[in-house]
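User: Can you help me understand a structure? I only have the sequence.
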Amino acid sequence: MNGVLKKIAIYTGAVMLATFVLFLICLPFGIKSFMNDISSVQTKMETKEANTNITKAVISVNDYCDIRFRQSKNGKFYVEVFEGSGDIRNFSYIENKVELTENGNIAYLDIEKDYENSKRFTKDTFNQFVSREFFYHPDLIVYIPENIEIETKGEYYHIEQLIYSNIDFANKETIQAEMEAENQREMELSVNQNISDIQAENDALRIEMENMRSELMTEISILREELYNEIYNNQTTTEMN
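Assistant: Let's start by predicting it. Here is the structure, written out as tokens:
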């Protein structure tokens, strides 16, 4: 019986060893094949462009995405949306939904996740996602000409991030001046609030000291009265004796 168990153990070990060696032999080929698949994925993008008569662009970022801003060289406001940009959630692939519309001289760029049209996570979407992370590129690039005004909406991106960049636009100095004025007002309010708090603490301390003084004077008056009565009683007792 022991001999049979020993043979089974030897055969099992030999099979496991052979499997492991085969895995090590095939591993480089698998990695090479995977890297070939990733490198063969072409980086594609879609360009959305506004008309040249645009004087203002309103950028609304309603969900997190990796946005890069660059100075437009051709005087046009446009955006490049990379294919494969998005997030993996619950084994689904959620792409970014980017819409560029116009109303008069104002362009509206709305960015959000396209939850309604989530894609099944396939090999192609996986390769696109890995390719994006491996050969880094953002979700989209927004090109801003220097002669239009910019306004941002949404909690995921704020105009302050553009103010302190090297991107020029028409109302940059105006917004920067407004921000500095607002910061100055907030600082003054903070200083005034601190002064008010200190004054309130001083007033409370003064009232407390006055109350303590009043209580002390009352105690002194009581002690003085008791001492006077004691002296008077002693004198009266002495005279009677």
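Now, to help you interpret it: Helices lie at 2-40, 123-134, 160-163, 172-240. The chain has a mean pLDDT of 76. Let me know which part you'd like to focus on.
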